[in-house]
NADH dehydrogenase (Ubiquinone) 1 alpha subcomplex 5 (Tremella mesenterica), 129 residues
Amino acid sequence: MLRATLPLLSAIRSIKASTGITGLPAHPDPLPALSHIYASTLSLLSSIPSTSVYRQATQAVTEHNLNIVEKAKGDVASVERELGMVEKLIEAAKEEQNLAGKMLEWKSWEALEEEPRPNQWRYFDPGNE
């Protein structure tokens, strides 16, 4: 029954048949899904202190991408010109959303439970050769 309606649906809006990437199916309606994931990620990030470098960086990228998706007004091709394949963006946004949840759980912005040993991170000093 669905096969009979597919030509009608295709006439209304073009559906990408394949992403060309094994294991990554084409999304039937990617922009609303992407907007929802970005909004959810921003909601999670708002629970992290604004002084957190992770929040600042992730929020800036997520807001930038969300702004591009909203300005596209449903035009998948324009989003793909700006940001790349939308299916990859959806996967990356889901992963970032999961990481934001983990960062909230881990409270990575808090001080260390134990003081680091002296010179523990000295190898990160540029003059240490």
Remarks:
- The mean pLDDT is 87.
- The radius of gyration is 20 Å.
- The helical segments are 2-12, 30-45, 53-72, 76-83, 86-106.
